[in-house]
Structures are given as C-alpha cells and as structure tokens.
Amino acid sequence: MAVESGADGIIVSNYRGRQLDHASATLDVLTEIVAAVDGRILVHFDGRVRRGSDIFKAIALGANFVWIGRPALWGLAVAGQQGVVRVLEILENEFKDCMTLAGCTDIQQLGLGGRNWLKRISSADEDSLSRGSKL
Q1: Of 27, 38, 65, 88, which has the maximum CB count within 10 A?
Q2: What Gene Ontology molecular function terms does this protein carry (predicted)?
Q3: What is the pTM of this model?
Q4: What average pLDDT does range 81-100 have in this prediction?
Q5: Class for domain 9-130, per CATH?
C-alpha cells in the first residue's frame, strides 16, 4: 500500500505496543515487510531499540534506518546533551561488537536485507550439522 501510494519510505513500528496485547513485535514482522517493499522504498525500524544488538538485528533483517527513542531521552534526562552523546557512544560500541562477533567488517556486508550475512551464517550452520557437530 505504501509503495503504491508513492511513499518514499515506511516506518515499521508498534508504537506503544504494550496497549496492543496481541500485536506482533516489530522485529517479528520486519523481514516480511522488507520482502513486500522489495527495495522500492526505504524501511525505517522503530520498536524497543535498547541496545546495539537491536540495531544490528534490525539492519541484518533489512531496515535501512533504525530509530532510537527512549535511550536517548533517558540520557538527556540524566546528563543533558552529554548523556545523549554517551548513550549513542554505548549503542555504537555495542553495534560494533556485534559486527565483530558476526565476522562483518563493513555494514554493507549486512546488505540486501541481511541476506548476505544471514546466508553466510545459515550455510555455516548447515556445514556444522553435516559434520555432526552438536551445538
């Protein structure tokens, strides 16, 4: 619908989802939405982003942008502008740690909705299973 309406992007959000007891989590529907828009518009992700690993997962699953709300506001409330800067530093460091642990040296390696990276890890899992490894 967003693509057909001429939108430049879509925001995947379950804003204040705690009010919607049975709504799907944003991360759970992200890949479906990324597949549906098929690169024709930008996908923004918003929903309980609290750690750098949340940012990593959203990008790996296809988000072009990840919104950060509450952590930045918490930093602002605690220490003003410096608090926001510190929160962003923490998120960036956590994101970089995830990249390192995933064997990615460049964010572009997460590209194509994470299919590059996800394909690499799923084939590694298949190799492990074929050798009889137990996780």
Answers
A1: 27
A2: oxidoreductase activity
A3: 0.79
A4: 96
A5: alpha beta
